[in-house]
Design brief:
single chain; alpha+beta; Guanine Nucleotide Dissociation Inhibitor, domain 1; Alpha-Beta Plaits; 3 domains; five-stranded antiparallel β-sheet
Length: about 425
């Protein structure tokens, strides 16, 4: 049911999902929208920092030409983007300290493109529902983990080539993640954008986009939620600064964190308790004698190597500043991860001079194969709107900026 234009909305979280929802509501004529943000800035996992006069990304920072929702916002807010520079081999061998040799023969290379262009493309066409906003409509076959699903569909070379952009980017391991997430992430339009080299970065930092959007809206920063009570069609939100009332509540924060402050229902509690995360840690470092490019470390693309670096990003070739990314599971100590980083840098011929900044991300909210098979997403969608509460964010679609924004926009268009 559509709401009156004077409906009072409160959105928890000023990241990509929350701000896209607010932007969509405003464009539909709703003006009574407040966003509550616990940090002192907007952007969520889109976090940019300026160091020595240049912008660095500590979280998400790349978009592709097919990311229409974000591209539209980039155009509206006149935020500069520029193409990513491609060209270098970027898989590194810790045993030799250099780039991994290309082990694919010409027939294998031909086989890879055949698997990608024919088999994988055909498989995507067989499962069109996975490309719709959300995951509730996904076919049963996609609940299996991607490693087994790829084996059953005879696309081993596609699995191998995709791994660096999945595990390396913090989304876990093929043996542990349902195939639905991988197909959502590696849709055909995104792959075509990659093959066309239509991939872009934000020279001034992606967070600048979200700051501009947030400036258009009423955002209360540095705000902690103390209590949310949902009674008689009125939602009361007590923060550390004031009490607010709303007609509609939108949650983009980690849903299981609401146990601490919201009157969660039995259905909510049951679903929220199943959500899992990876731990993805960004280290902004100054290195010497390290490869002057971006690189992945396939030796660490295994659950047995949790707490080891999987990827590094060299944003500028004329500096010795790198961002290194460690994939873990919240069980590895800071000291152990730091040791793993130093060891990895040393094996690649470099030395660590200084760590400038560390950001720990509670990353990639998802559920496992069994919970997906048990209907997690249809159950979650079935309670959208109950108690005038709506759920948005990475969990509902996938942990990219575009897919988070797509779901948020679609939810507003469906219900309001």
């Amino acid at each position: 049911m559509k709401k009156s234009k004077d409906t009072r909305f409160i959105i928890i979280g000023a990241g990509a999902a929350g701000l896209t929802a607010a932007e969509t509501l405003l464009n539909k004529g709703y003006t009574n929208v407040i966003i509550l943000e616990k940090e002192s800035f907007a952007g969520g996992k889109c976090r940019s920092v300026e160091y020595e006069g240049r912008s660095y990304e500590l979280g998400a920072g790349i978009i592709s030409a097919n990311n229409k929702t974000i591209m539209d916002l980039v155009e509206i807010y006149e935020v500069p983007i520029k193409p990513v520079v491609f060209g270098q081999d970027n898989l590194f061998d810790l045993e030799t300290g250099g780039v991994c040799p290309d082990t694919l023969s010409f027939p294998d290379k031909f086989s890879f493109f055949w698997q990608l262009l024919l088999r994988y493309h055909r498989l995507l066409l067989q499962f069109p529902k996975v490309q719709e906003p959300g995951l509730a409509q996904c076919e049963l076959e996609l609940f299996d983990n991607f490693h087994h699903w790829a084996k059953m569909n005879n696309i081993p070379l596609v699995e191998d080539k995709f791994e660096r952009f999945f595990t390396g980017f913090g989304y876990g391991y093929w043996e542990e993640v349902p195939a639905a997430y991988t197909l959502k992430y590696n849709d055909w339009a995104s792959l075509v954008s990659y093959m066309r080299r239509a991939i872009y970065i934000f020279p001034e930092g992606i967070q600048g986009l979200w700051k501009k959007i947030a400036d258009r809206h009423k955002v209360f920063y540095n705000t902690s939620i103390k209590r949310i009570a949902r009674k008689e069609n009125v939602i009361t939100i007590d923060t550390d600064k004031q009490q607010l009332r709303a007609d509609v509540l939108m949650l983009t924060c980690p849903l299981e964190e609401t146990f601490c402050f919201m009157d969660t229902t039995k259905a909510e509690a049951e679903l929220f308790s199943k959500i899992k995360y990876t731990e993805y840690i960004t280290y902004l470092c100054r290195l010497e004698n390290f490869p002057n490019q971006t690189g992945f470390i396939p030796a660490h693309f295994s659950p047995s190597k949790k707490g080891h670096p999987v990827f590094w990003y060299k944003r500028y070739t004329d500096t010795n500043i790198y961002t290194l990314y460690v994939l873990s599971d919240f069980t590895v100590s800071d000291a152990a991860m730091f040791h793993n980083i130093e060891e990895c840098i040393s094996k690649l011929g470099g030395s660590l001079i200084k760590v400038e900044q560390i950001v720990k991300w509670k990353y990639f909210p998802h559920v496992d194969t069994q919970d997906m098979q048990d209907g997690f997403y249809p159950k979650l969608e079935s309670i959208q709107g109950f108690n005038n509460t709506y759920y948005l964010g990475e969990l509902l679609n996938f942990s990219t900026v575009e897919l988070s924004a797509v779901y948020a926009k679609n939810l507003v268009e469906r219900f309001f």
